[in-house]
Amino acid sequence: MMNNFTNLSANPCYEVIIMGGGFAGLGAAIQLKQAGIENFILLEKAAELGGVWRENTYPGCACDVPSSLYSYSFAPNPHWSRIFAGQAEIKQYLQDTAERYAIMPHVRFGHEVLSAHWSDTTDCWTVATTQGEFCARFVIMACGPMHEPVFPKVKGIDSFTGEIFHSSRWRHDIDLTGKRVAVIGTGASAIQFVPQIQPRVKQLSVFQRTPHWVLPKMDSSLPKPVQQLFRFLPLTQQAMRSTVYAIFESLNGGMQSPAAMRQFQRLARFNLHYAIKDPALRRKLTPNYVIGCKRVLQSNDWYPALAQPNVEIIASGLQEIHGNTLIAADGSSTEADVIILGTGFEIAEPPIAQRIYNRHGQNMADVWQGSPEGYMGTMVADCPNGFLMFGPNIAVSSSAFIIIEAQLAYIMDAIRQARQHDIRSIEPDPERIAAFNSRVQDALKNTVWNSGGCSSYFIDRNGRNSTVWPWTTFKMRQQLSHFNLNEYLLDQHAGEVAES
Q1: Count of Cβ atoms closer than 10 Å to residue 12 Cβ
Q2: Which residues contact 278 (CB under 8 A, 6 or more apart)?
C-alpha cells in the first residue's frame, strides 16, 4: 500500500490539500482522518472556519433547510434551537464539529489560495497561497458555490452619495434607523433581511426584476424537552431527518415535471393571496413562470413586510444612479441614503475556476468558457487527482449535506484505491465526460429548470444548464458510492490495477 510519495518539490508536501473551511472542506478533513490519513492540511483564507455561514451575517440570516437535514449524518446536533437554525448557530455547529473531530491542527488560517497548478513531471499539485507554496498529491477544492458575491454593473453607481454594500458583506456599523434604503434584488437573502430592517427604516424601495414564488416556512422553536429527546433517543432525530429528506426528495423529483410543479404552485399562490390583499401589489409579486424554475423560497414575514406603508416595490431592475437618485429600467425613480445589494453569488462561474490550472497551463474558467463541465460533478478534464466539491451539474433541491456526503464517499474511495494500487494519478476519460454530459443535458431538457419559463442562476451565460443534477439524490448517492477505476485514465507505478 502506498502511504507516502516522493517529494520532488522544494515546497512542503502533503498527501492531500483541502481548499476551504466550510462544511464541504471540514467534511473532507473528517473523512481523511477517519480513513487514517493524517498527512493533509486545510487552507482557509479567513481567521476562522465557517464558509458561507461566516461570510453572511445579515439580519435574519438562517437556513432554508431544516436543521435535522442541514448537518452531517455522522454528527447529529440534538441542541438546535429551531427547526430552521439561524446563522450563528450553524457556524457554531461547524466550529464545534471541527474541534470534536480534532481537525484544527490541520487548519492553516490566513492562507488564501492564489493558484493551483498540476505538473505531469512531479505528479503533484503546487498550491500558491498568500503565505507561501505547498504541494500535494491530491487536492480537494471545497470553496463553495455561494462564495463570491455578484456586484451589478450599473451606470453611475460610483456617483452614489450614500453607503452601499452587499448583503454578504453586511455593514453592521451603519445604523439604518430613519434612513431611506434601497434593496436591489429579491432572492433568498433579501427575503430574510428585508423583514428585519423594514420596521426601522424611513422608506424601503425594493427593486425587483423578477418575483419569486414564496412558500410558508414551517418554522418553530424546538423546546428543551424536544432537544433532550433528540439527545437521549437519537433515533427520534434520525426519524425526523429521514422524514425531511423524503419531503425534499419528493420536491426534487417533482422538478422533473413542470406539470407536477404547477399543482404544487397552488400552495405558493395561496400564500401570496392570503398575505397580500392589494390587487396592484399582488400583480407585481406574482411570477409568470412555473415554481421551481428559480430557487423556491420560504418565508412567513416577506409578504407582510412588503405590504407595509413605508415599502415600495419597483417591479424593474436598477438601470442608473445619479447622486442619491436611483432610476429603474422602466423609468421610475426613488431616492436613497443606503443601497443594499441582494444580488446573489457567482454560481455557474465559480471564481476558484480562475485559479486552478490544468496540465496544459490553462485555468478552468478559460477551458469552460462560461459553461462548466465535468464528470459526476466531481472531476474535470486534464486535472488529475483534483476533486471539485459542488462541481458542474451536481446541485439538487435538497440539503447541501446530501451532495457533500455523496461526493466525499466518491472522493475517499478514489484516494483509497489510489493508495491501495500504487496509482500516481487519476483523471476522467474525455470520452466518458462527453457521454456523461450528453446524458445530463438530455435529462434536463424537459425539467422545470430548463422549461419552466424563467431565467435563473441555474442557466449559464451560454444558455446551458451547467448547475443542476437532473436525477434523484438516490441515484446520485448510488452512482457516487463507488469509484470505478475503469472509468478513469490511470498512471500507475507498476503492475495492473485489479478491479475493486
Answers
A1: 12
A2: 307
Torsion of CA 39, 426, 388, 376, to 10 degrees: -140
Q: Is residue 317 part of a domain?
A: yes
Tell me: do 324 and 362 sit in the same domain.
no
Q: How far apart are CA 339 and CA 464, in angstroms?
A: 32
Q: What per-residue confidence (pLDDT) applies to 211?
A: 96
Q: Residues 378, 420: one domain?
A: yes
Same domain? For 63 and 104 the reply is yes
Chunk the chain into consecutive blocks of 10 residues (it has 500) and report each block's average pLDDT, rounded to whole numbers: 52 94 98 98 97 96 96 97 97 98 98 97 97 97 84 91 96 98 96 98 97 96 96 96 94 90 95 97 97 95 98 96 95 97 83 93 95 96 97 94 98 97 96 97 96 92 95 95 96 53
**323 shares its domain with 395:** no
Q: Where are the alpha helices (DSSP H) in 299-447?
A: 302-306, 364-368, 400-420, 430-444
Classify residue 116 by burial, with Cβ atoms within 10 Å: 0-12, 13-18, 19+.
Answer: buried
Tens of pLDDT, residue by residue over 401-417, are: 999 999 999 999 999 99
Task: Tell which residue, 192, 157, 186, 163, has the closest CA to residue 176.
Answer: 163
User: What total number of domains does the chain contain?
Assistant: 2
With CA atoms as reference, report the closest residue to 409 among 430, 387, 429: 387
Contact 393/440 with Cβ under 8 angstroms?
yes
Question: How far does the chain reach from its first CA to its final CA, in angstroms?
Answer: 14
Going by the DSSP 8-state scheme, the letter that residue 155 receives in this structure is: B
Helices 224-232 and 234-254: angle between axes, nearest 10 degrees: 100
> Other C-beta atoms within 10 Å of 83: how many?
18
Q: Which of 305, 321, 341 is the last residue of a domain?
A: 341
* Size of the chain, expressed as the number of residues it contains: 500
